[in-house]
UniProtKB/TrEMBL annotation:
Compartment(s) where it occurs, according to its Swiss-Prot or TrEMBL record: Cell membrane
Protein name, entry field: RGMB protein
InterPro entries named in the record: RGM, RGM_C, RGM_N
GO molecular function: coreceptor activity
Species per Swiss-Prot/TrEMBL record: Oxyruncus cristatus (sharpbill)
Domain of life: Eukaryota
UniProt similarity note: Belongs to the repulsive guidance molecule (RGM) family.
Stretch list, region Disordered: 80-112
Amino acid sequence: CLGNCQLHTSCGIQKCTTDFVSFTSHLNAALEDFDLEFCKALRAYSACTYRNSKVCRGNLVYHSAVLGIGDLMAQRNCTKDGPTSSTNPEMTRDPCNYSGHTEAREHQGGEKTPAPTYLFCGLFGDPHLRTFKDHFQTCKVEGAWPLIDNNYLSVQVTNVPVVPGSSATATNKVTIIFKSYQDCTEQKVYQAVTDDLPAAFVDGTTSGGDGNTRSLHIVEKVSGKYIEMHARHIGTTVYVRQLGHYLTLAIQMPRELVMAYEESQDLQLCVNGCPSSERIDDSGHLPLPVMSKLLPQGSAAHPASVYTLETATTKCHEKMLVKDIYFYSCVFDLLTTGDANFTAAAHSALQDVEALHPRKEHWHIFPRSRGGDVGRDSKFFVRLGLVCLILVVFL
């Protein structure tokens, strides 16, 4: 209605609405402080309409805005009393809040700056890697490898063999370094190993920056099993979980910061994927092993006979209804290890994608067919069925 309704020249509702849009256009719903900042903007919007209540008394746009503000405050559980966004948004950008950086540049330069683009990377299972480019790979990468290594964040994982005779590995150690950044935070190091997933950095603190800023902090979701790290100053969120004996990672980070690295930092699995020599899969196609030939007699590892193709498929389908690459990674992991915890790992990895990946249409990945199109009817599924048929015969 804003473009069609005639506003009284003395009514300032259009300015109120413009300020509200300015306050909220940079906010990211995936970040933890979204509700706090959105409520501050709503209270500022409400105060602005109140100041204009007399001159806008007969204006339909004004009354629609007042009703809309009330509805939004109820939906977000906003209190009527509390802090408000400044009436001069260009002067009050928090230097330790990345989502406000582009807004500040816009006001300073006078040109419209597009909203920041966020990217996602995840690692789980045997291990399966989803890169920032949405490429899906299964790799060996035994030992210590960098997932991310840029000017703001370093993430390194250590992978160990899962089953004797198989090249599959899984993550048992994670080291994360948030590098010092202006006045927002000093360098903070986080480290987790199997059966020790702390809710604090190695120095014993749970946040970075002073008490007012808290631009970086750790939230414990499930004691010893699941933590989240929120770094407002670089717009980055990290999830770390332990499922069974192994760890999983999920990371959301702005594209411009992901790409801020030197030539010497080019070995980053999240950016460039695994080296070809480390790939287990063939362009996304998982070659399932014949486990009875790989496991020696009396092996202490999970026996291959725990799962057949049918029971592994049924088990994975209990958690994942869509038969995408996460589902088939689950089947691969069960037939490779016999460890049911890998089902939970694949399921939680998909949940993390849904929580952190900004584009819903890209949540599910399907292997590529001969024609290069993504879909269910690809040679991957034919190959998977044939190899698993052989697997059942041998078992």
